[in-house]
Amino acid sequence: MTEAAFLTATRHSYDALAHHHLYRTGTDTAAKPFDRALLAAFAGYLRQGGSGPVADVGCGPGWLTAELTELGVAAFGIDLSPEMVASARLAYPRLGFVVGSMLELPLPDGGLRGLLASYAIIHVPWQHRPQLFVEFYRALAPGGQLMLAFQVGDDHRHFDNLDGLPISLDFYRQQPDEVAELLREAGFAIRVTATREPEPGLERTRQGYLLAYRS
């Protein structure tokens, strides 16, 4: 089957970005206390429900995979970009990282206790979201926990250059209530829908979050 063009473009773009200074230097949620609190809440729900693997989907260089591990979660990373996965393995050799598409996760039905997709769905065209959320539902065990993070808005932006690097990346902002409804249609129950204003000096747009579980 021929791969969708947006997946190919996203993979090639993040392969190019994997060695860019923005990704080499790394970041975490230390400067974003609300994000850190929500990640801790997600980990708390995971611990309540028992053991099992948790996938950080669209993990990039693995920063949040490592943070989840620090919170006591058995996390591993999945990313579309082989170069990002190579960077994550180098930075966190004790953690597991695999190459894969979140639209076709390399996982058995019900194989996950939890799934984090932090700023990963933003590269998926809006019309593909129902398929994506059905795939998340398939990969999670009954009662499995889901956390999404994304920029809030209605616009679609395309970038073909970053600091002289040729890329082809599309960004699709999301409306939290719309995402929540799509998750319900896929079979999820919603725990938390939240937004916050941009952190000064770090962001330009409002940020959205959803915590849900497979009902």
Automatic annotation (TrEMBL):
The keyword Iron is assigned to this record: no
Superkingdom of origin: Bacteria
Biological-process GO terms, alphabetical: methylation
Keywords attached to this entry: Methyltransferase, Transferase
Keyword Magnesium: no
Pfam assignment, any one: Methyltransf_25
Annotated Methyltransferase domain residues: 54-144
UniProt protein name: Class I SAM-dependent methyltransferase
Source organism: Natronosporangium hydrolyticum
